[in-house]
Amino acid sequence: MNICRANWIARCSAALLLTWCAVSQAQPLRVGLIGPFSGGSGDFGNSARFGAELAVKEINAVGGFLGRPLELVVRDDQAVPDVGRRAAEDLVLKEKVAFTIGFCNTGVAMKALDVFQQNKHLLMVPCSQGTAVTTKYPPAESYIFRIAPPDLLNAKFLIAEIVDRRKLSRVAIFADQTGYGEGGLKDLTAELEKRGLKPAYIARFPLGVTSLHEQMRAARDAGVEAIVAYTVGPEQAAAVKSRLEVGMNAPFFAPWPLSFGSVLENAGAAAVEGTMMVQTIVQDNFNERRASFLARYFKHSNEKRIGSLMAAAQAYDAVHLMLWALFQTKGDYSGDALKQALENLERPYQGVVTTYSQPFTSADHDAIAINMLWLGAWRKGQIEYYYREDAKRAGYVRRKEVR
């Protein structure tokens, strides 16, 4: 943990500890955590879990919150919407946790959002990127916040890269049949329409497919110049393998699931080489904050390869942002108090992904802006910055512009 941040947490705890002594000695502050810790989404789900665990471990090491240790109450949603909703009901209605960090899969999140909204329970989303997650309810009324980039930004970023920067106009969209794929298809199509374009080819497929040969051949025959795939890790692997096997040469783009370690494991280095994806963070050993985080992460998780750096770092930052809000409310963890604090955060948090300075407002519950995104690429089995100039500027912190 950053020494200055650790010292600040310790000082805040000490300053308020006397006032809260009776409460602080009672019970741990219980925090809900929901994610896909088993099944096909387990690679990035467990990265998020390890990231959240590491944050809690480090916070507790410097005194917790007002002397109260944080305790994660973990529920596995298995990437199944109905399971995710039951987990939300359990944490909010039965366990009555103070707040919840949760959801990696958009379809699972959408099924459970009303549990948090109707009970005025603060939900911080560390991974799920579906645009609808933070737009289902108007931000002024919503208790749903997110520290991952919404797919609307991913679509803007990718189409700007493909059409505006590379001057490619025949774009194929590969989207699974989940809410995540549906939302991505909608966002990408809208961005193309702004430029007077339509998708040159659209492929829809269910989760669980192991081959997309037929669709790749059809895209090739349609003369597509670029492919964008909206799906999760196993199906991203199927897409890049099929692209290689049918001799499809069009550049391959995707949002963050293409960066999952399982894609490399399931597809192989040759299939992923050169494919590109949207990232909020890229492993950079020259960035002290990120290098330190990774060293601590691997020590805590005992993993040899991280499933998703984005999931881990965003979940870690999500816990710390909630701690910032708790100090600001002086321990009031009602949904209204936390919502007000997050929308008017008084102190910047120097996180792993970025420095969060007024990340939310009453009109915007997404912490990530388009200027905070990077284009990553698979190169020799590692995710690197696609553009060399981005690698050179990696030490520059991209903050959300205050509006």
From TrEMBL:
Query: In terms of domain of life, where is this protein from?
Result: Bacteria
- The protein in question is named ABC transporter substrate-binding protein
Which species expresses this protein natively?
A: Caldimonas mangrovi
Keyword flag DNA-binding? no
What keywords tag this UniProt record? Amino-acid transport, Signal, Transport
Matching entries from PANTHER family are given as: LEUCINE-SPECIFIC-BINDING PROTEIN (PTHR30483), PERIPLASMIC BINDING PROTEIN OF ABC TRANSPORTER FOR NATURAL AMINO ACIDS (PTHR30483:SF6)
Which SUPFAM superfamilies does this entry report, sorted A to Z?
Periplasmic binding protein-like I
According to the entry, every stretch annotated as the Leucine-binding protein domain falls at: 28-379
Say which family it is in: Belongs to the leucine-binding protein family.
Give start-end of the signal peptide: 1-26
Q: Which CDD domains match?
A: PBP1_ABC_ligand_binding-like (cd06335)
- On whether Transport is a keyword of this UniProt record, the answer is yes
